[in-house]
Amino acid sequence: MFSALDENEKNIVIDAMEEYKISVNDVVIQEGDQGDCLFVIGSGTLSCSKIFPGKTDPTFLKAYQPGEAFGELALLYNAPRAATITANEDCLLWKLDRDTFNHIVKDAAQRRREKYEQFLSQVKIFETMEPYERSKLADAFCEKRVPEGQFIIREGETGNELFLLQEGNAVATKTLQAGQEPTQVMEYKVGDYFGERALIKNESRAANVVATSDCLLVSMDRHSVKRLLGPLEELLKRNFEIYEKYTASGQ
Ligand code: CMP
Ligand code: CMP
């Protein structure tokens, strides 16, 4: 949320933040209410839940840890609070008012969304998303440059990010026979994604991904993938059958 701000803007935001202490079981945000601030967690944990259409009981969505922010959606999209946030214990929060948010953070977040708009429209996997939902993805993007020949992902490592190729080309290679050189199993061009498997299956990285030219990547962490791409999970799994072929024949 704040990664698009420059130093000066960050300082203005920090100055505007007010300490907000809450006790265990306090409801900080109630789904459906109007929202006039967002919160950053200083200490303590909170739970986020939401009542989905056709249901009466809330569904647990996620736990919030210190350092995370919530309550930004109502300010970004001028919408009612989309979920309920309750304190699991006594917490220290930092509250940011709507005015500062509108003047400083919203513009930067807006610029960020515009910057990625064109790229996002080229990503096939996002074609089915509402343009509005798609624009939210930009808030979660982290940019990374990887020079030609370097590894973006290493087989066997723990993976916490999904990558999208914004510029350049890359290939996936996989060790099909123990002790032998990895074999090329996939090629990637602009708009392609990889690194989804470890996140969806909760397993280690199943292949290497190597930059075959200088690459500009955007990554999304596990939490953002779950929150923002949850509804696309079936689409994200569409390469799994291809992956299985390599495992079945070679290992
Ligand atoms: P806001 O709608 O202002 O208030 C509720 C907050 O819950 C929301 O902003 C987000 O910060 C947070 N939240 C976390 N996960 C979700 C989700 N899946 N849907 C909606 N809000 C969520
Ligand atoms: P992940 O296992 O997270 O990290 C390596 C990525 O390489 C993997 O996700 C897929 O996105 C991609 N990949 C391409 N080809 C294969 C393959 N044959 N088997 C497994 N992963 C593959």
Topology:
Blueprint (H helix, E strand, L loop, with lengths): L6 H10 L1 E5 L4 E3 L7 E7 L2 E5 L8 E6 L4 E2 L2 H5 L6 E4 L3 E7 H25 L8 H5 L6 E5 L4 E3 L7 E7 L2 E5 L8 E6 L4 E2 L1 H6 L6 E4 L3 E7 H8 L3 H4 L3 H11 L1
Helix pairs in contact: 1-3
Bound molecules: adenosine-3',5'-cyclic-monophosphate (CMP) (2 copies).
Notes on the protein architecture:
It is globular and about 60 Å long. The mean pLDDT is 91. With 251 residues, it is an alpha+beta fold. The termini are far apart. It has two domains: 7-102, Jelly Rolls, CATH 2.60.120; 122-249, Sandwich (Jelly Rolls), CATH 2.60.120.10. The protein contains eight helices and 16 strands. One adenosine-3',5'-cyclic-monophosphate binds at residues 153, 159, 172, 174, 185-186, 194-198, 205-207, 209, 243, 246.
Query: Which class best fits the helix and strand makeup?
Result: alpha+beta
Number of domains: 2
Biggest beta sheet summary: 4 strands, antiparallel
CATH architecture of the largest domain: Sandwich
* Share of residues in helices: 25-40%
CATH homology-level superfamily of the largest domain: Jelly Rolls
The low-pLDDT segments are: none
State the separation between the terminal residues, measured CA to CA. 43 Å
CATH topology of the largest domain: Jelly Rolls
